[in-house]
Design brief:
By secondary structure, this protein is mainly alpha-helical. Helices cover 42% and strands 0% of the residues. The longest helix is centred in the first third of the chain and has 21 residues. The termini are far apart.
Length: 78
């Protein structure tokens, strides 16, 4: 039982290791010139870092609080 389980696990590992090699494309590809694109930022001058800090400040109210009840003890002798 142990030998068959070990053999099955070894076969699965070998198959998994060979899978990426089998998935590679062997066709030849032509190289093209790199294409560059310009990205236009449309944030209109607003710094999004401040928005993130405001969001984190809003989460401060959700932090765990210590819910120990106030206990008053009377220690006078009877």
């Amino acid at each position: 039982m142990r030998k068959t389980l070990s053999a099955a696990i070894a076969a699965a590992i070998v198959a998994a290791a060979a899978a990426p090699a089998l998935a590679q494309d062997t066709a030849t590809t032509t190289t093209t010139a790199p294409v560059t694109t310009e990205v236009e930022h449309e944030d209109e001058g607003f710094d999004l870092g401040w928005l993130g800090l405001l969001g984190l400040a809003g989460l401060l109210g959700l932090r765990r609080r210590d819910h120990r009840p106030d206990v008053t003890r009377n220690t006078t002798a009877r």
